[in-house]
Specification:
67% helix; 6 helices; mainly alpha; 150 residues
């Protein structure tokens, strides 16, 4: 584990750097980097029925964080939330015209950020990194599930 003991620190530094880069790159927009990730994900679903609970299940992100992000997207006019006619407890996420109008700008921002992040890294190394990050996420989800079962 000695070789890996700085991975958490590196991930934290990377996250902070991404936040700083995103704030600078998107300072003219009314959306944060985190909100742009969520909105991009919602737009990629191609108008399928979207619900906050399904976002939580598929991403592993806390319900509170998802709720907070969706609230901000709603306040900025990117989404509306409607009660599901079959289940009043579920809120369907509906993308607004503004979301579709901003889609290209948001995607351009994310593409710039990814290009900067991955500059000088081979496709082979990027595949290894992606697989490793997915495995780390899976490990954490498994541990979280195990702890909540006990």
């Amino acid at each position: 584990i000695m070789e890996n003991d700085n991975i958490l620190w590196l991930i934290k530094q990377l996250n902070i750097s991404l936040d700083q880069y995103g704030k600078e790159d998107m300072k003219s927009a009314d959306i944060t980097r985190s909100q742009s990730f969520f909105l991009s994900h919602l737009l990629s679903k191609n108008s399928r029925s979207l619900y906050a609970t399904s976002l939580h299940v598929e991403s592993g992100i806390s319900k509170a964080a998802i709720s907070s992000t969706l609230k901000a997207l709603k306040q900025n006019g990117y989404i509306i939330m409607e009660a599901d006619p079959k289940d009043d407890r579920k809120k369907q996420i509906i993308l607004t015209e503004k979301a579709y109008e901003e889609e290209r700008q948001i995607q351009a921002h994310l593409d710039r950020q990814q290009a900067c992040l991955c500059e000088g890294i081979s496709q082979h190394d990027l595949r290894i990194l992606k697989n490793s990050l997915n495995k780390m996420i899976s490990n954490l989800k498994s541990e979280y599930a195990r702890r909540n079962v006990l």
